[in-house]
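BUG: 3D viewer hangs when loading the predicted structure for this chain

Environment: internal workstation, default settings.
Expected: structure renders.
Actual: progress bar stalls at 90%.

Input used:
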Amino acid sequence: MKQLLFLSTFLLSCLAGIGQEVYSCKAPKLSFFSSAPLENISASSERGVSAINIKTKAIYFKVPMNTFQFKKALMQEHFNENYVESEKYPFAEYKGKFAEDVDFSKNGTYPVTVEGVLSLHGVEKSYKGKGTITVRDGKFNVNSKFNVTVADHKIKIPSLVVKNIAEVVEVTVNADYQPVTK
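Structure tokens produced before the viewer hung:
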């Protein structure tokens, strides 16, 4: 009986340890901005998911492409049907790691460098960017901006609208994380 109690206590402590290493965000704020000679275009989504393992420094994002909201419905339609082909490539996904040590037990803002692979429009491309992790009372926030060249992901911009859509768009990430509990 003592062995069973010891084993149960050990397993519960292991699961608690795992839960404290993995943090999730159920509604990361993801947006992009395109600045072109004729117009600026922006869109955002809060329908993705994200997770961070603070022990391995691994970071993960996944967002359905058809959840990006534009100011104009026609822009959103063209984005999904003509450019990112969201029916054929429904998700953008990022898997990476941050390099620096972050003291997740101490409040503060920590600059980090994140390096990983973005899968967009069926094409994977490596990206490296700067960001910050702000720790506050056992929770934390991640902020980052990086540029994505649309041609790198085989997203074609017709010459007719090349002055309306930038070749490089700025992507902004803002996510609040909480510990994953079992």
